[in-house]
Amino acid sequence: MQSNINRTMFSKQVSSWNLRDQHMLETLDALAQHLQQSLPEPVKIVVWAHNSHLGDARATDRVRIGEWNLGQLARELHGDQVALIGFTTYQGTVTAASNWDAPAERKRVRPALPGSYESLFHQTGLGRFMLPLRTNDAVKAALSQPFLERAIGVIYLPETERQSHYFHADMPRQFDAVLHFDETHAVKPLELSSHWETGEAPETFPVGV
Fold it and tell me: Per-residue pLDDT tens for 68-100?
């Protein structure tokens, strides 16, 4: 009985995700059509969203549970007119919540797990770089295997990071290019709260006090 309940809940989560990303695409296309009617030049639109929405879901293990996203739908509809750009980081801080509707916190991002794209990029020793993937055959050959990839969105749960935030992906199929920042810094909210100001205690707490 419990197994059936879990499957139902999981199915609802995928359905809700797909519905939201389908709505994102419809909104994007409606905006493009509206702008095209009033502008003489072809419309170019930049969409800022989390990697999990913009990277082509067909290149991740999420496709096995029937999940799609905006990046996949946009590619299917517009082909090479779409450029999917991903952002990765090895460590740092992030503004995220511990649960839906919970306050924003400044959280430490743990060093990426071994066997992940983020860990591989960290090994280059470069603080930041752009990696083109669409036309770079050598890079595509080197990275086209099931590496782990981390996704941090509205919620970040470092205590269950492997289960909550990692999945397997083929990055050269997922993105057209990737921007890597080895250490990232949390976005500062317009309305600061005590949760954000305080942030998380250092990993050495209370030893490091």
Answer: 999 999 999 999 999 999 999 999 999 999 998
Given a contact cutoff of 8 angstroms between Cβ atoms, the answer to whether 179 and 128 are in contact is yes
Residues whose CB is less than 8 angstroms from the CB of residue 32 and which lie 6 or more positions away in sequence, other chains included = 43, 45
User: In angstroms, what CA-CA distances link 94 with 52, 53, 91, 128?
Assistant: 16, 18, 9, 17
* Coil, strand or helix at 202: coil
In 3D space, the residue among 186, 182, 178, 155 whose CA is nearest the CA of residue 87 turns out to be: 178
Task: Please enumerate in sequence order all residues whose Cβ is within 8 A of that of 105, keeping only pairs 6 or more positions apart, or say none.
Answer: 95, 96, 97, 98, 195, 196, 199, 200
Residue 150 has pLDDT above 70, yes or no: yes
Tokens read off for 133: 């993937």
Tell me 166's DSSP state: E
The answer to whether the beta carbons of residues 50 and 70 sit under 8 Å apart is no
Q: What is the spatial distance between Cα 60 and Cα 84, in angstroms, rounded to a whole number?
A: 14
Token duo for residue 87: 């952002």
Q: Is the pLDDT of residue 64 over 60?
A: yes
